[in-house]
Amino acid sequence: MRIPSYIPWLAIILLCAAVVWFLLGPVLGFGSVIPDPAQAVITSGSLGPGGGGLYQEQLPVPVVFNTSLGDWNYTITAQYRYTIIAMVVTRRDYTGQGADQITPVDFGIACCDVIRPENFQYFTFSADFRKPIFTYRYPPGSVPLPVWYVQRFISNNHLVFLNDSVYKLAQAVQAGDCVVIRGYLVDITGTTESGGTYSRSTSVIRNDAYLTGCETVLVESLTKVKC
Length: 227
Known about the structure:
This protein is α+β, with helices and mostly antiparallel strands. It has two domains: 1-34; 37-225, no CATH class. The chain contains five helices and nine strands, in the order ααβββαββαβαβββ. The strands form two sheets. Strands 2-3-6-9-7 form a five-stranded mixed barrel. Strands 4-5 form a two-stranded antiparallel sheet.
């Protein structure tokens, strides 16, 4: 029986396609499933020592939200998706009817090697007005985490809520709890009919200084997990 002449060429084409799929699939976003780290933590129900992370993804186009509180009308512009998987190390609530009511609570968070027991025991945290305060002192002979690393994985987050049920979940979170927060990094502008103006920007890098180094996060979902 004679093998059709196109069969060898078909085999070569399929082989080449398989090689391209294997080599370029992860780069081009096909042929593999990239696990969602946040969903993995939610599914397991535990952050675990040294776990977590801060995940930022630029949006193809900005997303704009609008809301009103009291006399203030706010425009909230998101250019990045943002996911926090971390331990809450400070919490501070802000009350009142001023323009800053759009961010009613700050979470100071830490993750990764900072929250490993062998490191975390040497840290102290407190919350000042719109910024976290932390110090760490290792005993002589210990090898401390580098300053750049500590700054990278401790951050303060001004939280925005457009959903009352999500805000209620946040009200139940205390320092020492571990959370998965999904949402957006946002810039906020506000106006009143009487001519009042307001603005708050977000940091989009993790190694800048406070106060401008704080992240402003529109929270879409919040899940508590074990530490």
